Amino acid sequence: MTTLAEGTEAAQATAHSFPGLDPAPRSYQSWVADETIEDYALRYAPASHRRWSPATITHTALGGISFLALEAIGAALTLSWGVQTTVIAVLLASVFIFIVSLPIAYHAARANVDMDLLTRGAGFGYIGSAITSLIYASYTIIFFALEGVIIGQALNMAFGLPLPLGYLLSALVILPVASRGMTAISRFQLITQAAWIGLAILPFLAIAWATEPAVVGQWLASPGPEMSMLSLGAAIGVLCALTLQIGEQVDYLRFLPPPQATTKLRWWGALILAGPGWILIGGTKIIMGSFLAWLAINDGVTPAIAAEPIGMFRHAYEYMFQPVTALILATVYVLIAQIKINVTNAYAGSLAQSNLFLRLARYHPGRLVWLLFHVSVSCALMMMGVFSTLEAVLAIYANLALASLGAIFADLAILKPLHLSPRRIEFRRAYLPDFNPVGCCGMAIGGLVGLALFLGVTGPLAQAWSAPIAFAVSLLVATLLGMFRKGHGYSARTPHDFGHAKSCDCAICSHGYEPRDMVYCTFYERPICSLCCSLEPHCRDFCKRPPIPRPEVVDAQAPSVRLHRVPPRMGQRIWQIVAVFITLMAMLGCLFLAARLLSDRLHEPQLATNFLLGAAPLIGLVAFWIVMAHERRRLTEENLLGALQRLGATQHELAIRQRLAAIGEVSAIVSHELRNPLGTISSSVEVLSRHPGLGPEADEDVQRIRRNITRCSRIIDMLLDFAREGAHETMPVDLKAWLRALISEHPAHGSISLTVPEGMHLRCDPARLQFAICNLLENGWQAAESVVVADHVPRLQLRAMRQGDHCIIEVEDNGPGLPAEIRARAFDPLVTTKPSGVGLGLPLVRRVAQMHGGDAWIQRTGPGGTIMRVSIPEAEG
User: Fold this and answer.
1) C-alpha closest to that of 740 among 754, 728, 759, 727
2) Which residue, among 620, 610, 609, has the nearest Cα to 585 in the 3D structure?
3) Which among 122, 157, 440, 701 is most buried, taking Cβ atoms within 10 Å?
């Protein structure tokens, strides 16, 4: 990590920053500022908030896998494909889920970030990871709805409560706990853990007590559809959708304390049990659901009731209790288990939606708002009967989920160990590209292949295995792209180093955060927190733009208005319209596909063709409107940025001129008042130095006085230079010979290399230009000497080059570079890095260059050194 980016950031900050622009203070709603509620929804979890033990994290995370949708999935697969196919599919899918989930859990726990922040730095980029956030948010919504339906069924069977009312109650009951974040959730999970485990084991004890041990063998040998690659692939495709459950586990694992704060065994134990180890219990629950459903059907329960968790557990409890007691126990168990999981679903969904809409709208009303949104959408899905289409929904969803996970797995498990991507998980907008082709292309190609196969393009066998194939294609594409790019495209600029500070205040919201959560904003030239950076609407990623060449020369003959036969950016606009049109049509096709799977009345092929063709003109108009509205907004913001830049530059220049005027007024008086006392002191010192009785110590004092007299005289000369007005005398000089003579007078001339083309002539004021170049050489030499590293040899390079009709004189050192806070104000008067400096050297250099019709600026600065440039018009002939 370095203080400044190499070249780009420095050039931008010098030539295109907003020095006079102050950020508007931002305030949040009270619940957004309260991290007990917000729970670092959009940030990494800082050390001050990771106060839970590994055991607490494990209990809390395992409480989130109580969901009875697992038993329902086991029952549904058994009814569709038979027991043998279900058991083998569960075993294979469990191994797959464990392997895929392990690197995700590890990197999230080490970087202390949730699933969204993880994917930003795992190959998707800042905007690209919004797609994975959408997929993950959809997962939490779908399963919240499935679990809510199970609660509604239990309330309906036990108390006759209408299903819509049961759905509403199932959604509202989780709000008091989910709204309070990790603190309340961990306490709730611990309180309910014993009851949940006891009620989950009780029916199997009852079955074992009331039946023969051979019942398990009968279940495994029960007749059903013959197992084939087709049935096995279809079952695995449904189960693979559960892989995204690792995202909910990660939401708790990000609070795991650092490995050095506990023992290695406890840390890894918590990581595995709370992370990929969830499938060990989850897979067991799926098989338990298959067994309970088969047992209920064998005892005469209808398949529809047996497939519902409340029905299968009620029947199991009846092996030990009376029907009424069994119903009460089953209802209590369902309520405890489902509230436990839906608290987790709602919490994880609010985090995912906060991250998603933050990037789409640059607006964050707070996690509580997205929690309510999550609950509302889930209730709508319950009313639509999502439970009755469980297998179809999960089969479609599995293709998209596994395509995204394939790209993530490629980065975390392959590219990072091979050092083909940065090991550090970066999540801050200021340092990330918008899109990283490694993850985005891998997921897009994998998802399209998976959906095409699922639609039956290549036959039923590939259709059944479409989800695993989507994962494999995404993994392969992302890996190949990562190897080809060799780590490029993961970072937009080099992160700023805040040193060893434990906390840093944000210049916008005024709250203090750890440096890991801070960025240095080159738009405002101040440190801001990652959330304020994400919410900033004005900068338009100013810090990540490529440098714009400095206009050293303005052509007076150039017209002020440029006319174009073809509007600028026309090709880009056409491609944007085509891309938006294709995206909208694809989304419309997916919606129609989903409707077709859910309704028997939409299976006519001609109906789909007519529907899509009829919608195409309207979608085209919508795409055109979206692109042009975005273009109008872009142009408006660009104009605003230009006005702000001109305003900031004008204010900055006005402040400098006012300061220079004040210095000029005072300098003449100060110099006159100081010259006479200095002259007297100097004469007295000369007299004292001739006194024969002075010893060695007095001689040292005399030399010290002489050095300080010389320093004071130099400061007076600089003040007088600021005070001088009027024309300066110029004369032609041979630049190469003149610079060679100037270097020969420097004490370190042996360490200064000179590169000047032959025949370069300047018309300049030699005395003033000599002062400017010597000042740059002196600054560069002091910087090069300040590096205390073994084998470091201070060196300077003095170069000259032509640029148009200007001559560029360049001084490069191999020093440590300028700090960001100094670099932005390096040419302001009275700004210096030297303890004994007055901060007038670089302002004088710029003034000398401007007197000659040129300018001075910092071309590059960083750990490798600094390049200073001065431009002077080249003399003709």
Assistant:
1) 754
2) 620
3) 122
Split into its structural domains, the chain has a count of 4
Are 577 and 638 in a shared domain?
yes
Token pair recorded at residue 783: 């910087």
Contact 531, 43 (CB under 8 A): yes
CB-based burial label for 797 (10 Å; 0-12, 13-18, 19+): middle
The answer, as to whether pTM is greater than 0.90, is no
Ranking 369-383, 541-555, 707-721 by mean pLDDT, the lowest is 541-555
Q: Which residues does 446 contact at the CB level (< 8 Å), separation at least 6? A: 402, 403, 406, 407, 470, 471, 472, 473, 474, 475, 477
Which domain range does residue 845 map to? 727-873
Mean pLDDT of the chain: 80
A 10 A CB-CB count for 376 gives 11
Which is it for strands 752-755 and 796-803: parallel, antiparallel or unpaired?
parallel
What 8-state DSSP symbol labels residue 6? S
pLDDT tens-place string over residues 560-603? 444 444 455 666 667 767 777 777 777 666 666 655 554 554 44
CA–CA dist 143, 67 (Å, integer): 9
CATH of the domain at 844: 3.30.565.10
Burial 815-830 (b: 16+ CB within 10 A, else e): bbbbebeebbbbbbbe
List, in order, residues 6 or more apart from 172 with CB less than 8 Å away.
Answer: 375
Q: Which one-letter DSSP state was computed for residue 494? A: P
Residues 706 and 752 in one domain: no
Q: List alpha helices for 263-306, DSSP H.
A: 264-274, 278-298, 303-306
Look at residue 794 and tell me if it is in a domain. Answer: yes
Would you tell me the crossing angle of helices 129-159 and 163-172 to the nearest 10 degrees? 130
Q: Catalogue the E-assigned strands of 630-789.
A: 731-734, 752-755, 761-764
Instruction: Give how far Cα 284 sits from Cα of 79, 151, 196, 358, Å.
Output: 18, 21, 15, 38
Helix (H, G, I), strand (E, B) or coil at 810: strand
Rg of the chain on CA atoms, in Å: 36
Task: Report the distance separating Cα 395 and Cα 383, nearest Å.
Answer: 21
DSSP class per residue in 827-853:
TSTT--SSTT--S-HHHHHHHHHHHTT
Measured CA to CA, the distance from residue 616 to residue 582 in angstroms comes to: 10
pLDDT 10s digits, 502-535: 888 888 888 888 999 999 888 888 899 998 888 8
